[in-house]
Every structure is written in structure tokens, then in C-alpha cells.
Design goal:
51% of the residues lie in helices and 8% in strands. By secondary structure, it is mainly alpha-helical. It has two domains: 14-74, no CATH class; 79-148, no CATH class. It is extended, with a radius of gyration of 25 Å.
């Protein structure tokens, strides 16, 4: 195994800064394996716990060495791919089976919700970031004071 970066350089991408094992690891990771599985691919005899730790170590090391955004784009994972994927997820459907026979196809609400959350994250509009008092004519402090008051009918 040759760890010389000049000899392992791949033209047209930034994998050249990575050692051959790191290149194979990140290739498998970008193909859809998680970090532990990608590590087990390059080290099939590693223990499960070792693969989990080393997969994470490899991923951090590669992110530090390579230009991560460029690496993603070179593998077709640019902003447009993200948009297409989220759009597909927003329309996701799931098929229900009974005894190996299709019963029906339904909206996959769990996938659609995850897509909505991802889109909200990207747009900076997560629930915790929305200012609910923006359009109210009264200041938020008054709303907070009203919420803290006891209901006179509940005393007993």
C-alpha cells in the first residue's frame, strides 16, 4: 500500500490529498454506507466497536484534509441534488402489503415530515426560530405577563 499523496492523486478532484484507504473509505461512504460500514469495507476483520470508532475518526480526518463541499459536489451531491431529493421526499409515498400482496399506497407522512424539517432548517425557519409575536400589536412582555396570571375561576 502506497501512502504517497502524489502517487495517489486523482486528477479533477480533491481525493488526491487522501491516502488510498481514506479514498476507498470516502468512496464507500458517499455511495451510501455509514461510517462504520465504510470502515468495515476497508478493514473487514475489525471488531464492530472498533469500526464504529474508527469510522468516525476517518470521517473527521477526511473532512479536515479535503475540501468537503468540493468532495460532495464532485460526487453529484451539490445543492441541486439536495433540492431534488427534498422535493422527492415531500411527495413520498409508501406501499402497504398483506401476505405479499399490495393492499394500498399511502402518503409517507414520516418521510414528508422529515423533508419539511430539512427544508425549514435550510431556510432558517425551524420552529424554535420563528418569532410568533412579530405581527402582534402588543409587546411580547405583555403576552408573557398575561400567561403568568392565574385564572380567577380556577381558585378553589
Amino acid at each position: 500500500m502506497n501512502d504517497n499523496p502524489q502517487e495517489s492523486e486523482t486528477k479533477g478532484n480533491n481525493l488526491g490529498v487522501l491516502k488510498p484507504r481514506e479514498q476507498l473509505f470516502i468512496t464507500k461512504y458517499l455511495e451510501g454506507l455509514n461510517a462504520k460500514e465504510a470502515y468495515l469495507f476497508i478493514s473487514p476483520n475489525a471488531a464492530d466497536s472498533t469500526a464504529r470508532v474508527q469510522g468516525s475518526v476517518y470521517l473527521k480526518r477526511i473532512k479536515a484534509k479535503a475540501k468537503w463541499s468540493q468532495l460532495l459536489e464532485e460526487n453529484g451531491l451539490d445543492d441541486f441534488a439536495l433540492i431534488r431529493s427534498i422535493k422527492e421526499m415531500l411527495n413520498a409515498r409508501t406501499t402497504k402489503f398483506y401476505m405479499d400482496t399490495i393492499v394500498c399506497t399511502l402518503k409517507d407522512n414520516a418521510t414528508r415530515m422529515k423533508a419539511t424539517e430539512l427544508l425549514a432548517d435550510l431556510r432558517g425557519k425551524r420552529k424554535g426560530q420563528i418569532d410568533l409575536y412579530v405581527d402582534l400589536p402588543i409587546p411580547a412582555t405583555v403576552v408573557i405577563e398575561v400567561e403568568k396570571q392565574k385564572d380567577p375561576d380556577s381558585e378553589g
